[in-house]
Amino acid sequence: MIQKKICMLGATGVGKTSLVRRFVQSIYSEKYHSTIGVKIDKKSVRVGDEDVNLLLWDLQGEDREFKIRPSFLRGASGYFIVVDLTRHETFVTAFSIQQMVEREVGPLPFIVLFNKNDLTEQIDILPTELEQMINFGWKMFRTSAKSGERVEEAFQKLAEKMLAADAA
Amino acid sequence: MSFETDKPVSDELTEEQRRPTDVANGEAGLADLRRIIVESESVSAILPSAIRKSSRRDQSLAAATLPIVEENIRQSAQRNPRVLAEAIFPIIGPAVRKAIAEALGQMVQSLNQTLDHSFSPEGVKWRLEAMRTGKPFAEVVLLHTLLYRVEQVFLIHKETGVMLQHVSVDPSAAEDGDMVSAMLTAIQDFVHDSFKESEDATLDALKVRDLSVWIEYGPDAILAAVIRGNAPLALRETLVEAIEEIEFDFDGELENFRGDPSVFEPARPILERCLRLQLGESAATKSKVLTPFNILASGLLVVLIVAGFFWIRDAYRWSGFVTRLRHEPGFVVAESERGFFTHSISGLRDDLAADPEAIRAEFKLDSDDVAQDWRPFQAVIAPFVVERAKRLLSPPATMSLSFADGVLYGDGAASREWIAEARKLAPALNGVKSFEIGPSAARSAIESQHLSFVCGSTEFTIADPTAMLTLQFEDLFRSAASAGASVKVEIVGSADPTGTDDFNASISNARAEKVKSDVLSRSTYLKDLAGRLAPVGVGAENAGSDCAVRFRVIWEDK
């Protein structure tokens, strides 16, 4: 079975671990646990007629004091950048993270996940800003780890993108 | 563009220089010189590409230049060794450092173990062994203490952290290899980043109690061995060899890895070679269980256990047999001896006692193993005395016999003659001093008495009838005393109806008094009990009254 390393990146508290738990274990907990360093999980998906084993590296969220360790990105075949729809600053962080990854490991398939889509009242990012991202050609999903909205689909999509990049 | 390669440039120049120096010649020389310069520039432009192509095609260029390169290195080393030393130092330095570190590590490890065991009881034992075998003490210590097992080996892709292959001693107990591999890589990256070490500084081992993970790095792959116990540093060499072999065999696959680990399936035998088990002393001795000495010793032990079982069982039976005979009525055990094969017992036995052979059989002792010697005797114990008395006296069915304190008691109804006979014969029995009759016998004997008088007088019709009566009275009072009862005898005198009532009353009373006084005069024992004899005259009150005296016993249990 093909093995692919995927990194979960994003600002702290955006729901990276919750998305992984939703995807791998189909559960969600309101309790917040900050990830220290890295947590590794795995799940396999089927792309076409091929099973792909995704090794999910859930990295510690980036904030003012902590920057993502580039060495953890080494060998990744793709990555997610997770943004918290209710905190505008995490949207800004997404850009800097994307640039850092391009700089450290080169262009890789990635998807931006706008998480916490269930908190519709508190959304802090304007539709025009989202359009700006689409204009960059970035693929993105509005997800909710709480309801499971589009989580499976996002992982499936990234797996497909990674295999397509391999084939190219 | 082409040029002559078989004509050395330096030779042409020398030839030009030897020509005459006229103008024509000078121009020609200049032209040649220009040509040579142009050609050498062309050669320098195409040389690198020509070398690349040649080396790609075959090894002929390498073979052609090998002697030159070797000679260059030799000359360089002779002229100025420093240049060469400085050039290869970045390669030699770390290699030497690593070799020295491992050698020192091994030495320290053995030294630590030596010190640990120097003063323990095992240490003393191993010291003796070292003296006996002539081996160095440290070597003996290592021999006994090394006990480890390489339980799992992971082959990990260095860049991605993806597990390429995994072998385990117990496949069912294996962890999730993918995640273990990724986490190991993450830890390595974390340590590397956190402590800002140089690029070639690597995490060599992780340790949790007696479980360690040893990691060896190749350029593209990582080998991680999970080891339980105390492995020697020499194991590193095995791991290094394995990773080198894998790097060599799978060079292309590692470099172009795109996430499919199945191409590394052929590397499994190399990894399996790393799964090792080193036995310590305790485990090693297990394999030596079936030595001739141990078999003989075990056989002997089994024989001893079986013999011991039979010996103990026999001892238990014999002791039970002897104890039983000591408590069995009619036996007096004088001597008993338990031998290894046969036992003996001797003493006295009443012929009325139980059969000793039957008791022996009851204790499952073999008759051949037990020698018995019983001499006859008569045991003075109640059942036997009574039995013998029965045989001798043949009591009537209504009479029961008992024995206590040397006295044979008869109780119930029996003829006066039998009682008189019993009194005579009983003392002939062993242990019997006298015969006494029991309360009910004594009572019935007295109440059946009927002493006749000559009518109108106080004279007995027969001579001296109170002799037997006295004895019967004594029997009655004695048996009452031994039974703890209070007894009183009414001596009832009567008369025939021929006289007047007063006369009859008086004479019947006189007759009762006469019997009492006769009895008392015959027995001092009865004198003390005179109050218990109550003479009563009833005249001729009762129908069919006659000239006689009768008796009524009043028995009161206390």
Describe the structure.
The complex is a heterodimer of chains A (168) and B (558). Chain A has 168 residues and is of the alpha/beta class. Chain A has one domain: P-loop containing nucleotide triphosphate hydrolases (Rossmann fold, 3-Layer(aba) Sandwich), CATH 3.40.50.300. Helix content of chain A is 32%, strand content 27%. Chain A is built from 4 helices and 6 strands; from the N terminus they run βαβββαβαβα. Chain A has helices spanning 16-25, 88-105, 127-135, 151-167; strands at residues 2-10, 38-47, 50-59, 78-84, 110-115, 140-142. The longest helix of chain A is centred in the middle third of the chain and has 18 residues, at 88-105. Chain A is globular, with a radius of gyration of 15 Å. Chain B is of the alpha+beta class. Chain B has helices at 9-17, 23-57, 60-79, 81-118, 121-133, 137-145, 177-194, 234-249, 251-255, 268-274, 281-286, 292-327, 356-362, 382-393, 416-425, 439-447, 466-483, 501-522, 524-527, and strands spanning 147-157, 163-168, 205-208, 211-217, 221-230, 277-278, 331-338, 343-349, 370-376, 399-404, 407-412, 434-437, 450-452, 485-494, 533-537, 548-557. Chain B has 4 domains: 9-77, no CATH class; 146-284, Beta-Lactamase (2-Layer Sandwich); 294-376, 2-Layer Sandwich (GMP Synthetase, Chain A, domain 3); 383-557, 2-Layer Sandwich (60s Ribosomal Protein L30, Chain: A). The termini of chain B are far apart. The radius of gyration of chain B is 65 Å and the shape is rod-shaped. In chain B, the strands form 4 sheets. In chain B, strands 1, 2, 3, 4, 5 and 6 form a 6-stranded antiparallel sheet that branches. Chain B has a 4-stranded mixed sheet with strand order 13-16-14-15. Chains A and B meet through β1, β2 and β3 of A and α7 of B.
